[in-house]
Design goal:
Keywords: DNA-binding, Transcription, Transcription regulation. It comes from Pigmentiphaga soli. Pfam families: AraC_N, HTH_18. The chain is α+β, with helices and mostly antiparallel strands. It contains twelve helices and ten strands. It has helices spanning about 15-30, 120-125, 150-160, 170-185, 190-195, 200-215, 220-230, 235-245, 250-265, 270-275, 285-295, 300-310, and strands at about 35, 45-50, 55-60, 60-70, 70-75, 80-85, 85-90, 95-100, 110-115, 140-145. A hairpin with a 2-residue loop joins strand 5 (about 70-75) and strand 6 (about 80-85). Helix 1 (about 15-30) packs parallel to helix 3 (about 150-160). The protein is globular. The two termini are about 20 Å apart.
């Protein structure tokens, strides 16, 4: 199932010029393929000249803006496609599958990601007198929307700071604050408001997610998790699925399989050892669930990925 919005939004002339400037800046600061950390700690730039294969990972709270190209992000079977003049926002840690779907040497995929500091967002809400959101369902913690002119302008000014590193310590926090404000007052602001308010249901789910990420290899008792975040078991199930589009057990399984894949790939762990380290008691169950998520049993999948790593044109997106 795909997000209903069109892949790209047709910008007006000023907006188009701003996107061209953003693409030019990202291209200048990314002369090689891949992810490029910057002197602004929360800001990373991304470049790819080829579409990629699906890549499994966890999105932490983040704003992603594509200046050129397009990407598909899938959460629990729901796909979100976005390209130029669009942005994606994740308000909590989410296990997703992402794939660059539009890129070429002549027109590379150019994107930036900015980590979202939930604590600073909450402080901004307090300082500006922004009302706390009413208790209501706001949907999954992942969404795609059109990039407004004020948000594009703030993002452009943040990236331009890379040309004047001496200005970054003073000006970057101010521009990041402006970006947070634009997000809070935009169409997707309700998601951030819910997650930034202490003791809100969304904040409780964020704490449940943090517990799962820290303890994913341990046996999961839902009653214990509910107690740890001060929720009833039924409320935890309901709100966890509303935010993450999966149950706590499904979320834990995603984390376990992703970590097992990393262990097999980077530490050359044997399949049974990796399964045990991430909490599986049955290697056969591990292999079944691994194959279901990644489309191949562990060793075949690892061989395929190592082959892609040796081929610059075949790396995951």
């Amino acid at each position: 199932m795909h997000n209903a919005l069109p892949l790209a939004t047709v910008p007006d002339d000023d907006h188009a010029r701003g996107l061209e400037q953003l693409a030019s800046l990202i291209a200048r600061f990314t002369d090689t393929e891949g992810n490029h950390p910057t002197a602004i700690p929360a800001l990373t730039l991304h470049r790819s000249t080829t579409p990629g294969l699906p890549f499994h990972g966890v999105y932490e709270p983040v704003l992603a803006v594509i200046a050129q190209g397009a990407k598909r992000v899938t959460l629990a079977g729901q796909s979100y496609e976005y390209g130029q003049a669009r942005y994606l926002i994740a308000s909590v840690d989410l296990p997703v599958t992402s794939q660059i779907i539009k890129a070429s040497p002549q027109s590379p995929y150019l994107c930036l990601t900015l980590g979202l500091d939930v604590r600073r967002i909450g402080e901004l809400m307090t300082e500006t007198g922004m009302p706390e959101p009413k208790a209501c369902r706001v949907g999954p913690g992942l969404s795609v929307d059109r990039l407004s002119a004020p948000l594009l302008d703030a993002v452009l000014r943040l990236v331009r700071l890379l040309d004047t590193p001496e200005d970054i310590p003073i000006l970057a926090p101010l521009i990041e604050r402006e970006i947070f404000y634009r997000l809070l007052t935009g169409n997707q602001g309700m998601r951030l408001r819910h997650i930034a308010v202490s003791d809100s249901q969304s904040q409780q789910i964020a704490r449940a997610i943090a517990w799962l990420r820290k303890n994913f290899a341990r046996p999961l008792r839902i009653d214990d998790l509910a107690q740890a975040v001060n929720m009833s078991t039924s409320s935890l199930h309901h709100h966890f699925k509303a935010v993450t589009a999966m149950s706590p057990l499904q979320y834990q399984k995603q984390l376990r399989l992703q970590e097992a894949r990393r262990l097999i790939m980077t530490e050359l762990r044997h399949v049974s050892a990796a399964a045990h380290l991430v909490g599986y008691e049955s290697p056969s169950q591990f292999i079944r669930e691994y194959r279901r998520l990644y489309g191949a049993p562990p060793m075949r999948d690892a061989s395929r990925l190592r082959g892609l790593a040796a081929d610059p044109g075949g790396r995951p997106g």
